[in-house]
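Shape matters. Shown next:

___
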Amino acid sequence: MVRIMSAHELAPRLPWTARAMSHPWAALAVVLTGTFMVVLDFFIVNVAMPAMQADLHAGTGAIEWVIAGYGLTFATFLITAGRLGDQLGRRRMFSLGLAAFTLASAACGLAPSPAVLVGARLVQGLAAALLSPQVLSIIGVVYDGPARVRAISVYGIVLGFAAVGGQLIGGVLVQADIAGLGWRSCFLINVPVGLIALMVVARALPESRVEGAHRLDLVGTALITLGLVDIVLPLVEGRQHGWPAWTWLCLGAAPLTLGVFVAHQRRLSRRGGAPLLDPALFRERAFSAGLVTQLVFFSSMASYFLVLALYLQQGRGLDALQAGLVFTILAAAYLVASAYAPGLTPRLGRRLPAIGGLVLAAGHGLLALSVADIGVGGSIALLVPGMLLEGAGMGLVITPLTSTVLGNLKPHNAGAAAGALSTMQQVGNALGVAVTGVIFFGALDRGFGHAFEVSLIQLAALGAAVAVLTRLLPGREAASASEPAASRGRSC
């Protein structure tokens, strides 16, 4: 059996600095800074859109592309970026992505026109794709055994907090109007944070790559990029434009393009080449089942945040800061559940994300009952019990699911696997927003309360589906059987 090396075994072959050796958790702080920034920027712009549109005299199409463009380039380049990290160096690609993200954030914050803002957001999404898959790959290389579980747990906490806290942080920044910057501060805040992180990257992170890596599979890169664009572009644009013919043509072409990609990857693998996404990965039960579960789970995440924000701001008339404060209910429950999840994972295994899915479904159901009773009136306090369950359910899914999928993968597939997981997250976000958006806006003629209630019923079904899909993940016995090998470390 191929063994994954521990961080200590890898150290002689990696250019660790003395500082990195003496402060191993500095590496986690640096990579999670990047993670926090890229996830935050997916959600923070929601509360800034009205001010952005007024200041730049932008049409609704341009403002929609501020969100859609970021998600599009982010989703479509993740797998390629993961493989580039494996081949060219994970620290190098992380640094490049962080630098590009910081520059693009400055361009967004200083944008004089809608066209410049949209262009900068496209670059920002590409930079986020370069950065994101390196994070889990670096965690897998630097940390081993219990330390890796703790690192992935902290990663999950940061990931969720950036998502649920984005609304609050954006609301505070817009409301504070620091130096008269208004919405621009939502982007410019990334600049000092990114520069500080870049200053310590070389000292905090080791470099790692796959030994003897082949050059990038350019044909595979083109095919997977085209296939993902065929999926994501119509999903983010279809509803706003009334689902024109081109959206259905793209969605119909996606399976064909991805089928050609799969055939190409298999052929390249048989010939001894280096496919962009090794077909052998899909024979790993944790990976294949984990991808599907990841897709379904994140289909409910971004879509829930969207309809909740619409219900609070347009339905109940809350301003950006008030709506953001309501999101802290989710954030608090998420942080508490995420803190307990690492200790529960070894004992419960795949049952933990199953429990999380059921808790999430129960939270959506309870919130739907509350909204059915109060509509867009009544006390916010009546929403609290359902939102607490929702936040707890999210916290019990994200970290255990990530740990299960990535825990036993071979090092040379780390970047591609992390990229695939992140891709499923972004595709899930786009898919969920598209489907839940159709349900929400389709029911809006009866009011925001009714539209939110109907959406919550659909989201509860997705939470239950997550619980069912976790049955396909390896059981605790399988994880225990592989633990001795993992604790001894593996070699490439």
Observations:
- The first helix runs from residue 7 to 10.
- The chain has 20 helices and no strands.
